[in-house]
Specification:
Layout (H helix, E strand, L loop, with lengths): L1 H8 L6 H9 L11 E3 L8 E4 L4 H13 L5 H19 L1 H7 L11 E4 L8 E2 L8 H8 L2 E3 L5 E3 L1 H18 L3 E4 L6 H11 L4 E3 L5 H10 L4 E5 L4 H12 L11 E5 L4 E4 L4 E4 L11 E5 L2 H16 L2 E5 L4 H6 L16 E3 L2 E3 L10 H6 L8
Parallel strand pairs: 8-9, 9-10
Antiparallel strand pairs: 1-4, 2-3, 5-6, 7-13, 8-11, 10-14, 11-12, 12-13, 15-16
Helix pairs in contact: 1-7, 3-4, 9-10
């Protein structure tokens, strides 16, 4: 079925012969022994067979014994001479052919030697070599050869190539990133995806301190949510890291919170990803990073925001108060009543048209993104 579907995907409907060749003999034919021409004949050993008395010999013996004449030396010698003459005639092929071997067989005590026959090995046709590459492709119907010995790809072969090319192209644009175990580049690829997400929101119940260092150094992620089962030692280490870190380049406060959840999500400004394992395990065990479709991303984002709003605040990044004081005189009071004004939300400040979470109202009003600011 998969072979037929692949050919169909490439725009070709294979024949029954093409399907069966792939189903029954997809690999090159191996070398095989030639056809049996003559079977093996075993050896016959030489034999010695004792000869049985003939009718004549038995008749003479019986007649002499019946008349009681066997004890007569003369008659006994006469009988022995007759037996010798019969034995001579028995050895003569002329007499044997004329009288018959059954009548002139040997006398008791004599043996006939029957010669043996040597063995004869089986005889085979020449061995058939393994199927060569081009012959294999021709048998499958993927290439063809013209009368001049030139090769070309068949309709079936072109269809399979098109189907393979479409799969490779789909893999390059696939929303699923497979992160193999023992892949030294896997962890860096994930950090790179986080960096592309802008002011990201990371949900990882077991986030490690080393992963947090890389996130704070190489990405603009500002919100990090860890699980409620995290031990106090690691939680304290994460909190110290956050408190010693300045806001991200966009001015958003870095913040660590804790809540009860299980799945790991990477929520970017425009994209949402599902991570199959904690960042601590990326590169040590196989996992995936899956880009969520728009409908799922909206629901995940809404649930994540609700979870963030109810989470416990653990630490926030350091704020540059001196910079805020220097600009206090130049900043006009925010117009909260206006639809374009700065509004507080969860300890930070937002304004329309900008996704950055600003650490203060003054910084939000100075932001040049969106509809507010210079």
């Amino acid at each position: 079925m998969e072979f037929i579907a692949t050919a169909n995907r490439g725009g070709y409907r294979p024949t029954g012969r093409e399907i069966n060749e792939w189903r029954l003999r997809p690999d090159p034919n191996p070398a095989s022994k030639g056809k049996l021409l003559e079977p093996e004949v075993p050896a016959v050993p030489e034999r010695r067979v004792q000869m049985r008395p003939t009718v004549f010999g038995s008749a003479i013996d019986n007649a002499l014994k019946a008349q009681g004449l066997w004890i007569n030396p003369y008659l006994k010698r006469l009988a022995e001479d007759a037996q010798k003459n019969l034995a001579y005639l028995n050895s003569s092929w002329l007499f044997r052919d004329a009288i018959g071997a059954s009548l002139i067989a040997g006398f008791p005590g004599e043996y006939e030697v029957i010669p043996g026959k040597p063995a004869r090995p089986a005889r085979y046709a020449p061995d058939k070599p393994a199927e060569r590459f081009l012959a294999h492709l021709r048998r499958l119907g993927w290439v063809e050869r013209d009368a001049r010995g030139h090769y070309g790809v068949t309709l079936l072969g072109n269809a399979l190539l098109r189907a393979e090319a479409s799969v490779d192209s789909a893999d390059e644009d696939s929303p699923v990133m497979v992160l193999a175990a023992e892949d030294e580049l896997a962890y860096g690829r994930v950090i790179g995806v986080i960096a592309e997400c802008g002011d990201a929101f990371i949900m990882d119940a077991y986030l490690g301190t080393q992963a947090l260092v890389h996130i704070l150094e190489h990405t603009n992620a500002s919100r990090l949510l860890v699980g409620s089962n995290m031990g106090p030692r690691r939680l304290t280490e994460l909190a110290v890291q956050i408190s010693l870190t300045p806001p991200n380049p966009g001015g958003a406060v870095r913040e660590l919170r804790r809540a009860v959840f299980h799945d790991r999500w990477l929520i970017g400004e425009h994209t949402v990803y599902g991570l199959g394992t904690s960042l601590n395990s990326v590169g040590r065990s196989m996992t995936t990073l899956v880009e969520m479709p728009d409908s799922a991303a909206r629901e995940i984002r809404a649930n994540a925001e609700s979870l963030w709003d109810g989470a416990d605040v653990i630490a926030q990044s350091a704020q540059d108060e001196e910079e805020d004081d220097d600009h206090d005189a130049d900043v006009k009071p925010p117009d909260h009543a206006s639809g374009n004004g700065v509004r507080p939300q969860g300890g930070v400040f937002l304004h329309e048209g900008c996704s950055i979470r600003h650490r203060s109202e003054q910084v939000a009003r100075r932001c040049t993104k969106g509809s507010v600011g210079g």
